[in-house]
Design a protein that fits this description.
348 residues, mainly beta, 2 domains, 5-stranded antiparallel β-sheet, 2 helices, 8% helix, elongated
Length: 348
C-alpha cells in the first residue's frame, strides 16, 4: 500500500506539471504597431550642421573635385554636384534612393528679361547621373549626386531642384522634401513635410540649397554664336543676312546694325525658328578692325552711334547723323571708318 501511494503522488505531480507547461507554452503577445526608428536627415557639408540643407557645386569634370570660378558662367560640359551629410541614428544608409527622388528645374529669361515657365528634368533624363557615398560611420553617411550639364541646359538662367531625405530601408525611410529655386542663392531650401503632397514646382520665394553654388547663369554652350545684322529701311532687323559671314554686302555709312547672340543648336550659322536668343545676357563692344592705307585700326571701343535696345541688343549707327561721317572716328585714320571692318566683341 505504501508503494502504491507514492506512485499515485508521483503520477499526480506529473499530470500537474504537464498541464502547467502546456498551458503557458501557448500564451504569446505582439505589439500592435511595428518598431519605428529615426527618420533620415540631410545637411550641408560646410560650416554649421543645419538640417534640411545640401551643398551644390559646379565642377569641370566627373570627378567633382575641380570647382569652376565663383564668377564664371557654367558651361555645357561642366558637372553639377549635390553633396550632403546623411544622418540616420539607426545606421540606415542610402545607395540611390535620394537620387531617384531628384527633379531638376530650369528656366530661361526672354529678350525682355522675363522668366519663362519652369522646365522639369527627371533624374532619369539627366546625363551620366550617378550617386557615390562613403560607409556609414556612427549614423553619418557622406554622399553626393553628380550629373553632366548637357545641351538641354544651354541658355538656362536659373536652376532649381527638389529631392527628399531618404534611405533605402528603415521605418521611416523617407522624411522632408527640400525645395530649391536658385542654386546661386545663399538662402536655405523651403522644406515640405513628408505627409504633404510632393511639390511640383520650385517655391516662388528665394530658396537656395544652403550653400551658395559657385558660378552663374546663363549656361553657355560652344554652339552659341554672335552675328551682326542690319536694320532695313522700315527699322526692322533683318536676321536672314549675317554680316559677320562671308558673302554679305559691304556695310556703309548710314547703315544701322545690331549684334545678336543665339544658340545655333543645329550649327548651320543661321538664326532658325525656335533657336534661343540670349542677346540680353551679354554686353557688347563695337570696334574697327583691319588696315586701310597702311594704317591699322586702333583697338578702341566705338561710342558714337552706339545704343542699347532691350529686344535686339547693342546697336551701332555707322557714321554721324549730325556731322560729316569721317569726323567721329580716330584722327589717325585716312578716311574715318572707311576701308576697315566692323567688329563686335561680347562678354557675359
Amino acid at each position: 500500500m505504501k508503494n502504491l501511494t507514492i506512485k499515485k503522488i508521483a503520477f499526480g505531480l506529473l499530470l500537474a506539471g504537464y498541464a502547467s507547461s502546456s498551458a503557458f507554452a501557448t500564451l504569446t503577445a505582439t505589439t500592435n504597431e511595428s518598431i519605428q526608428g529615426s527618420a533620415p536627415v540631410l545637411s550641408k557639408l560646410n560650416g554649421e550642421v543645419t538640417a534640411q540643407t545640401v551643398t551644390v557645386t559646379f565642377t569641370t569634370d566627373s570627378t567633382g573635385n575641380t570647382e569652376i570660378g565663383a564668377s564664371d558662367n557654367v558651361k555645357v560640359g561642366d558637372w553639377m554636384k549635390i553633396s550632403y551629410r546623411l544622418l540616420d541614428k539607426d545606421g540606415d544608409v542610402d545607395t540611390k534612393s535620394i537620387q531617384e527622388s531628384l527633379t531638376v528645374f530650369t528656366r530661361t529669361k526672354d529678350a525682355s528679361g522675363n522668366y519663362d515657365d519652369w522646365k522639369p528634368i527627371k533624374a532619369g533624363d539627366l546625363k551620366s547621373i550617378t550617386t557615390k557615398s562613403e560607409a556609414n560611420t556612427e549614423g553619418v553617411q557622406l554622399g553626393y549626386i553628380i550629373f553632366e550639364i548637357d545641351d538641354q541646359f544651354a541658355g538656362v538662367d536659373q536652376i532649381g531642384f527638389k529631392l527628399q531625405e531618404r534611405t533605402d530601408f528603415g521605418a521611416p525611410s523617407k522624411n522632408h522634401w527640400l525645395n530649391v529655386s536658385d542654386v546661386w542663392s545663399s538662402a536655405d531650401p523651403v522644406v515640405t513635410n513628408p505627409e504633404e503632397a510632393e511639390p511640383t514646382t520650385p517655391p516662388s520665394t528665394p530658396a537656395g540649397p544652403g550653400d551658395q553654388a559657385p558660378g552663374k547663369g546663363p549656361i553657355v554652350s560652344s554652339t552659341f554664336k554672335v552675328g551682326i545684322f542690319k536694320y532695313d529701311q522700315d527699322g526692322k532687323l533683318d536676321t536672314t543676312v549675317d554680316y559677320a559671314k562671308a558673302g554679305a554686302t559691304n556695310p556703309k555709312y548710314g547703315d544701322k546694325f545690331s549684334a545678336i547672340v543665339w544658340n545655333d543648336a543645329d550649327k548651320n550659322g543661321s538664326i532658325d525658328d525656335g533657336e534661343l536668343i540670349k542677346t540680353s545676357a551679354y554686353t557688347f563692344k563695337w570696334k574697327l578692325d583691319g588696315e586701310y592705307e597702311s594704317v591699322a585700326a586702333v583697338d578702341e571701343d566705338l561710342t558714337n552711334g552706339v545704343t542699347k535696345t532691350t529686344s535686339d541688343g547693342d546697336t551701332i549707327y555707322l557714321g554721324s547723323e549730325t556731322a560729316n561721317h569721317n569726323s567721329i572716328y580716330n584722327t589717325t585714320y585716312k578716311a574715318g571708318a572707311q576701308g576697315y571692318h566692323l567688329k563686335v566683341e561680347t562678354n557675359e
